[in-house]
Amino acid sequence: MRVRVVSALQAAELDRRAIATGVPSRVLMQSAGRAAAQLLLERFPLEASRGVAIYAGAGNNGGDAWVVAADLARRGIRVRVAESAAAKTPDAMAEREAASAVLQHDVPDGTEGVVVDGLLGTGAVGAPRGPIADTIRQINNAAAHGARVVALDIPSGVDGTSGACAGAFVNADLTVTFGAMKRGLLVNRDAAGAIVVVDIGVADVARAFDEAPCLLDEATVLWSVPPITASAHKGTRKRLLIIGGSLGFAGSTVLAARGALRSGIGMVKLCVEPASIAAVQTLEPAAMASAWPATDTELQALLAWADVVLIGPGLGLADSSRVFARRLLSKWRGPVVVDADAVTAFTGASSELGALLAGRPAVITPHAMEFSRLAGVDLDEVNVRRFEIAGELARTIRSTVLLKGVPTIISDGSVTEVSAAGTPVLATGGSGDVLGGIVATLLAQSNEPRLSAAAAAWVHGRAAELAGAGRIRGVTVHDIIAALGGAWPTVDTPRIPPVVTELSAVGERKVQALVSPTP
């Protein structure tokens, strides 16, 4: 099952459609709470043995919490529940009443090993106030003293659509989210912790929910990557021409070449500024090298060799580089990946870039600032609207857009996919060059721009996860390249229902000292 990535409004619509098909809303609530209770016990069994503190809000998120409380109590777990306000929705009131028969009605005393956040749901907006804000601080204080925090659907105080936090918010160790992935969780991975998406009976509705993009998973990537057959040779694995490497930036083309070579390309040629040739041939002996062509005859001979072109890594921002990018794209009509400085060469000229790219398989790979320059929109708008804006630009330039960031968005203007693979290990110079090499390799071998870009983004992120093994500091772009060999999926690993997909926690968290350090 492909997991949809939804806004808060889309999440509500998904529930509404499920209910319209005949699934009672209370059944959805019960499925959510029972799944969360099961995951809590599976992930934190020792902590749960010390007791579970549950904080329930007045709405349906609180109803989910009451289901969790009752389910745990029936399993013999010591459960204590605190209400921020009395349940007010019919389903929440019914689940509170049902839970009262199996609970001791004690309030949390701070000794519990697990804390459940059921205060605010995906639809909540604005800064938490009054008792809710106080309770959020209480939850975070429990976490600082060693308790594990499980958030239901989304950590309270985190906007379900934007991931923004206008005030106090819960820092969860695990977020169990229901039916679909919420955008805010992918944007604010720090607050979400590990994320598990569970099906609560809306799978068929979600599958047909075409308004929302899909989250990339191992199965999709496995299907998207073209196989390298037993009879393959370096010609059938294709030839990649990488154009860039101005003086002082030769390393960018080398990193792109290494990304491509680790991704299965047959041959690589680096076309760099003459002064950079010695450097690139020394750094990457598996790649050939040539100088930037001075004449159209030299350019045509260079392009005749290639099956795919990657232009941009270390190209530079001089006027001559901008002219060269336009000249290259007008002469080369085959598959192309436009990256880094080649994107910036078209600042404010997205329509011109679209005209040059039209009619062939093409991918551009901007980060948010490069996207902002190209599209002529504010950087904040790019980040706030990244789930929509990539598709808008894709339609303008008639090519696939891979918008790098947290999360990465891939769109051809018709279909949009989201890659949440990766860690902050990727937030380092040269990482994007490696990605460019992966995209170009898959594009050469498949001629499918969106599928190639999506698979490349996921594999790139997976390599970062493998390289870091839970760490951020001490991991370099060279470690990412080395990990690429193990990042390619070979089998589709099924999930045990109701789990549909999950993401590990990423990033470093500040360790809260339980005792103030001695001066």
Strands, total number: 19
Overall spatial form: elongated
Q: Tell me the CATH topology of the largest domain.
A: UDP-N-acetylmuramoyl-L-alanine:D-glutamate ligase
> Can you list the strand order of the major beta sheet?
7-1-9-18-17-16-15-14-13-10-11-12
Describe the 3D structure.
By secondary structure, the protein is of the alpha/beta class. It folds into two domains: 210 residues, Rossmann fold (3-Layer(aba) Sandwich); 263 residues, Ribokinase (UDP-N-acetylmuramoyl-L-alanine:D-glutamate ligase, 3-Layer(aba) Sandwich), CATH 3.40.1190. The chain contains 22 helices and 19 strands. The strands form two sheets. It has a twelve-stranded mixed β-sheet with strand order 7-1-9-18-17-16-15-14-13-10-11-12, with helices on both faces. A seven-stranded mixed β-sheet has the order 3-2-4-5-6-8-19, with helices on both faces. Strand 16 and strand 17 form a beta hairpin. It is elongated, with a radius of gyration of 25 Å. The protein starts with a strand and ends in a 16-residue tail after the last strand.
Task: Compile the SSE list and pairings.
Elements: E1 3-6, H1 8-20, H2 25-43, H3 45-48, E2 52-56, H4 60-74, E3 79-83, H5 90-100, E4 114-118, H6 130-144, E5 148-152, E6 174-178, E7 181-182, H7 183-187, H8 189-192, E8 194-198, H9 203-207, E9 214-215, H10 218-224, E10 239-243, H11 250-261, E11 267-272, H12 277-283, E12 288-291, H13 296-305, E13 308-311, H14 319-331, E14 336-339, H15 341-344, H16 350-357, E15 362-365, H17 368-375, H18 379-384, H19 386-397, E16 400-403, E17 408-411, E18 416-419, H20 431-446, H21 449-468, H22 477-483, E19 499-503
Helix pairs in contact: 2-4, 4-5, 10-21, 11-12, 11-20, 20-21, 21-22
